[in-house]
Amino acid sequence: MDYFKITTDETLRETVQHGSERYPFAYYPEDIWQFDFHRIDWHWHHELEFLYVAEGTAICFIGTSKVELHKGCGIFINSGVLHCFEARSSTYTPNIVFSPTLLASENSLIYEKYILPVINSAVEYQIFDPNSTSERSALQLMLQIFELQENGQDNELCTIQLLLQFWNILFKYRGWNSDLDNLQQSNHNQARLQIMMQYIHEHYAEEITLEMIAASASISKSGALHIFQSGIHCSPVAYLIQYRLAQAARQLYTTQKSVASIANETGFTSAGYFCRKFRQYYNRSPKEYRKKKTEESS
Phi/psi at 35 (nearest 5 deg)? Predict the structure, then answer.
C-alpha cells in the first residue's frame, strides 16, 4: 500500500503549491486512510478549502473544534486556519483548495464586499449537511466541481462559475461580520503555538522542559498548556513526544541505525522507554515497524 504525507514548514504552513500562479486551484481525490497513520496531519494554508465525505467518516480537528463528518457532508475551511483530518477506516474525501483571488482580484469591489468579510471573519469553518435544503444546494455545486475535474481539461471557466455560485450561498448563509477582537486573539494564539512548535522541532533531540517551551513564546507554563490544548488538543510535552517518535519512525525506515542509537538521537532517555512509547503510539515495536515499512517499499 502507498502511504501519503503532508509537507509543512516549521510554522505548520503547507508548502505545496495548490494549482499555479495563473490558476490557483487544485483538486485532490484523497482517501484519508492512505495517509501515514490514517491522518492528514496539522497544517494551514492561505488558500480556502472545501472537503466532502463521499465514503466513510472524517474526524476533523479545526482550530479548537473536533467535528465528525459523515458520508454526504461537506466542510468549508477558512484561510489561515490550523486543521487536520483522521479516519478510522477507508474514508474517501475529494476536496478542493483554491486562492480567494480566483474569485475576484484583491483591488476589486467584489473582493472587498464579498470575499474579504469571510476571510477576515473569526469563523474558522462551516459545515454543510445534505438534510438542509440550502446546504444541499451548496453540496451539489461542489459535486459538480469535482465531476468537472475528473472529466478532463478545459474546465476552468465552468469551475469558477460554480465556485461563485457556491460562494453566493456561503456568503448569504451566515453573517460574516468581522469580530476583530476574537480574530486577533485567535491569530495571536496561533502565532505563539507555531513559535513553540518551531522550538520543539529545532530542539527535540535535547532535554526540553515545559518551562523552556513556554519561554520560547514568552508566556507562562499554564499559558502554553492552554494554547496547545485549545490549538491541537494535546499538551506541549505530549506533542514533543509525538514529534520525537515521528522523527524516530523516519530514521527506522530510512537508515540502518540501531534502535538504541535512534532512541538516543531523538531525545529519549533510554531505549526501553522509547520502545514502550513507540508501541503505544504506533501499535507495534520499532523493529516491527521497520520490517513493515521495508516490506511495503520493496
Answer: -75, 155
Distance CA 243, CA 241 (A): 5
Residue whose C-alpha cell reads 494554547 in the numeric block: 227
Model pLDDT for residues 167-221, shown as the tens digit of each residue: 999 998 776 765 555 556 666 777 788 889 889 989 999 999 999 999 999 999 9
* Antiparallel, parallel or unpaired: β 74-77 and 125-128: antiparallel
Is the model's pLDDT at 3 over the cut of 80? no
Helices (H), 204-267: 210-216, 221-232, 236-254, 259-265
Domains and CATH numbers, the chain: 25-178 (2.60.120.280), 181-297 (1.10.10.60)
58-62 and 65-69 strand pairing: antiparallel
Cα 287 to Cα 292: distance, rounded to the nearest angstrom: 9
| CA atoms of 94 and 92, how far apart (whole Å) | 6
Largest CA distance in the chain: 62
The candidate with the shortest Cα–Cα distance to 73, out of 56, 87, 48, 88, is 56
**pLDDT on residue 274:** 95
- Percent of the chain exceeding pLDDT 70 equals 93
